[in-house]
Specification:
By secondary structure, the chain is an alpha/beta fold. The protein has two domains: 15-155 and 297-324 and 357-370, Response regulator (Rossmann fold); 160-294, Rossmann fold. 38% of the residues lie in helices and 20% in strands. The strands form two sheets. It has a seven-stranded mixed beta sheet with strand order 1-8-7-9-10-11-13, sandwiched between helices. It has a seven-stranded mixed beta sheet with strand order 3-2-4-5-6-12-14, sandwiched between helices. Strand 9 (242-246), helix 7 and strand 10 (268-273) form a beta-alpha-beta unit. The two termini are 31 Å apart. Mean pLDDT is 91; it is low at 5-28.
Length: 382
């Protein structure tokens, strides 16, 4: 791989440690600070004994979300369906990318004594103290990637990035004679996601005629952030063959390519999250958008909603959930759309559910002090 980094830089290799390769908060194993050292979890056992259901908290499920991107809307959709199916009150609050607003929303939910709360934090460090208070009070807390949580949801981030990069690499070999200028729109400021971009760099490092011409994190993880960043990149390097990143920012980058007349059918534009607009691009003739790596947000949202209800009722639930990367293409997108539209049907079919999610560990209200307070990843090696 040739490197002509016009913008941005490589993430530090030390960031990989932050996915649980080293302890980050001390040596506590339970108590006020929860489990603070990375430990392996076995497979979830749905037959594990129940606990008391006397939490004294309301049968309310809250979703405190970072923004309204389509991926997060999918989580909201799944959670709302699960709440309705389990007769929970449901409330969804949008922080609009403001860490201060998220703290306010979390405090409001704390005052309402909600029994279950799911969050995608804007700033994990600012949210953590309030989440710990909720956890100690017995609230089910599900988080999308960072700790602390009753149940942490993550993806095998390195594998996710590798699946996307290998699809791009195959396209480069098959249609570009192994030569390409690549743009990586990263999210390295969220340290828990950095392995997906490390994987992309590793794949392209093995391709001597591939140049990563920009390796940069947009200011905001939005379409506008992707659009603005790509517009600046095109000023310095108008010949772009491959663009990879989260669907939201990549969709913005694609809009910039189109607006400047730089979009081509032979380009490989691909993202992660399985967002609706990205999925729609897959069915468009001559679209540069070639694949989206689905992280099945409606399905895992529905599962977390079911787990919140189980927790409130004293049942045992997983400590961690892995969202398995699934490369969407024009050939398989219709089946995927059907699954996202009806996550309850997927959840009831254990074989189908297992193609999207893997679950680890067991916990219930009786072991609430053993909440997960380290950056869990199934890719951690012990």
């Amino acid at each position: 791989m040739k490197r002509r980094a016009l913008l941005g830089s490589f993430a530090s290799a030390a960031s990989l440690a932050l996915l649980g390769l080293v302890p980050t908060r001390g040596l506590g194993q339970g108590g006020l600070d929860g489990l603070t050292v990375a430990v392996p979890f076995g497979r979830f056992d749905p037959r594990a004994p129940h606990c008391s259901s006397n939490t004294g908290l309301s049968r309310t499920l809250a979703f405190v979300r970072d923004n309204d991107r389509d991926f997060i809307n999918g989580v909201d959709y799944g959670l709302s369906l699960a709440a309705a199916d389990r007769q929970l009150d449901y409330v969804s609050m949008n922080a609009d990318n403001s860490a201060e607003s998220m703290v306010e929303h979390l405090r409001e939910m704390q005052a309402r004594q909600v029994g279950g709360l799911v969050t995608a934090p804007v700033d994990p460090m600012k949210s953590a103290p309030i989440l710990q208070e909720l956890l100690r009070a017995g609230t089910y807390v599900g988080t999308i990637v960072p700790p602390p949580a009753t149940t942490i949801l993550n993806a095998p981030q390195y594998l996710t990035g590798k699946v996307l990069a290998e699809a791009a690499a195959a396209h480069i070999r098959d249609t570009m004679q192994g030569r390409a200028n690549v743009v990586l729109l990263t999210h390295d400021s969220m340290q828990f996601l950095s392995p997906r971009f490390a994987a992309m760099r590793d794949v392209f490092r093995e391709m001597p005629e591939v140049a990563i011409v920009a390796d940069i994190s947009p200011v905001t993880v939005t379409e506008k952030g992707g659009y603005d960043t790509m517009t600046n990149i095109l000023i310095a390097e108008p010949q772009i063959d491959v663009v990879l990143g989260a669907d939201t920012v990549v969709l913005g980058a694609l809009a910039a390519l189109r607006d400047t007349g730089m979009a081509r059918p032979d380009q490989f534009v691909g993202g992660i999250d399985g967002e609706r607009e990205a999925v729609a691009e897959l069915s468009q003739p001559d679209s540069p958008y070639k694949t989206s790596i689905s992280l099945a947000s409606a399905i895992f949202g529905y599962a977390m909603g079911q787990h919140a209800a189980d927790w409130i009722e004293g049942k045992s639930i997983p400590k961690a959930i892995d969202v398995l990367p699934f490369a969407l293409t024009a050939e398989n997108v219709e089946a995927y759309r059907a699954d996202m539209a009806d996550p309850a049907k997927v959840y009831a079919d254990q074989a189908r559910l297992a193609s999207y999610l893997a679950m680890y560990g067991n916990t219930c209200i009786g072991t609430k002090d053993e909440y997960v307070n380290f950056p869990w990843s199934s890719e951690t090696r012990f």
